[in-house]
Structure to design on (128 residues):
C-alpha cells in the first residue's frame, strides 16, 4: 500500500476521554483536576520508503491542541479554563500490508512537548 517519496498530510482529531486526578485534602475536602483535549489540528511533511510488504515513514510538522482544564478545590470553589498550545511535532511509523487494499499501521507521534504540557500518542490501526 505504500510508495517511496515525500508528501504532505493534514490531521484533525477530537478528544474522546478526559484525564482526571482526584485527592482528598483534610482542610479543603475533595479536590480534583480534569484535563480534556478538545481538538487536535496539524499539518505534516511525511517521508516514506517501501520494502516488500512493509513501509516505514518519518513525519515532522506543526500541531495545535485546544484543551479545557476544570479544577475543583473543595471549599475554595471550582474554575474552568480553555486554552491552546502549539509546537513542532514529529514521529515515525510503519505499515504492514495484509492484502492488496489493506494494511496494519503502527505509529508513535510526539504532538507537543512544552514545559507544562506534553501530548504524545502510540497508535495501531488499519488502513484501507
Amino acid at each position: 500500500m505504500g510508495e517511496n517519496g515525500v508528501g504532505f498530510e493534514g490531521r484533525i482529531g477530537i478528544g474522546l476521554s478526559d484525564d482526571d486526578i482526584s485527592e482528598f485534602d483534610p482542610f479543603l475536602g475533595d479536590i480534583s483536576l480534569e484535563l480534556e483535549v478538545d481538538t487536535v489540528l496539524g499539518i505534516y511533511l511525511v517521508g516514506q520508503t517501501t520494502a516488500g510488504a512493509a513501509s516505514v515513514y518519518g513525519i515532522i510538522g506543526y500541531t495545535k491542541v485546544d484543551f479545557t482544564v476544570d479544577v475543583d478545590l473543595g471549599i475554595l470553589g471550582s474554575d474552568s479554563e480553555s486554552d491552546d498550545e502549539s509546537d513542532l511535532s514529529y514521529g515515525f511509523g510503519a505499515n504492514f500490508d495484509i492484502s492488496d487494499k489493506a494494511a496494519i499501521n503502527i505509529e508513535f507521534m510526539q504532538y507537543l512537548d512544552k514545559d507544562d504540557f506534553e501530548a504524545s500518542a502510540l497508535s495501531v490501526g488499519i488502513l484501507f
Q: What stands out?
A: The longest strand covers residues 29-51. The mean pLDDT is 91.
